[in-house]
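WARN no homologs supplied; continuing
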Amino acid sequence: MILTVTPNPSLDRTYEVPGLDRGAVLRATGERVDPGGKGVNVSRAVAAAGAPTLAVLPLGGAPGALVADLLDRQGIKVAPVPVAGRTRSNIALAEPDGTLTKINAPGPELTAAEAESLLAVVGEQSAGADWIACCGSLPLGLDPSWYAALVARAHAAGARIALDTSGPALLAALRERPDVVKPNAEELAEATGRTLTTLGDVAEAARALRERGAGAVLASLGADGQLLVDAEGMHHATAPVDAVRSDVGAGDSSLAGFLIAGGAGPRALASAVAHGAAAVQLPGSAMPTPADLAPARVTLTADVPLDRPLTEPVT
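OK structure emitted
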């Protein structure tokens, strides 16, 4: 069972539009309303794959009630933590060429008591969890060390931790040695203070995070696939994408694929890339089912071309 923790969930509305024209009235050609937040998306992807999951998240107001209802309709168990503030609502505008414009609200400010309640519920629900996926930004009111406290408590309970966050929250959590961290290229560059122009640069930055406490680093590199660096070495995987429709939740689907396949080694990396490639070809934040996956199209290698330049370098 994969338990997910989303400290700042959302209600996500995605509109498909023929193009953006500032100041004009835009008529949507398609619309989706989904429960959102990185951990929520991981649970949705795990459920779409037919595996058990439980989502722990703070919920407040009418948007929070709708998030819980939407997750229930998808067969996802929810352990809600009631909060006084309203769950945030996000908007995404998707153009036919795959360009996505997102407006993310800040979300409610959690009190100290609500923050402690969230930690307590994770502890109560963690029994029997194979993995705890801690995902997303922290809402107002939570100190950057909050994820570190969560990792420490989860490890004390015997659970493995996958962490997908960035900035001070990521750096603070590394001292508690999360089992897997999943930064994208920008987050990896920020965390290490390095310029990333080649796969070799990514590998060195990933090793730097491991030296600071990460058990394994699963680096998401967009069109350049993903690089896994762990105690056994490194592997790189890519998959072709016929057409990008929306990248909302694609990284979360990728993390779900990684954890579903065991959360370690090249097999899990190939699963991560297959799930991510399938997700970007679906509308809004729809999550791929097994029928959407094309594992045979994944190219996996341990002979990583370290001199290969990144399609979108981070300087």
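Residues 88 and 106 are 7 Å apart (CA to CA).
OK
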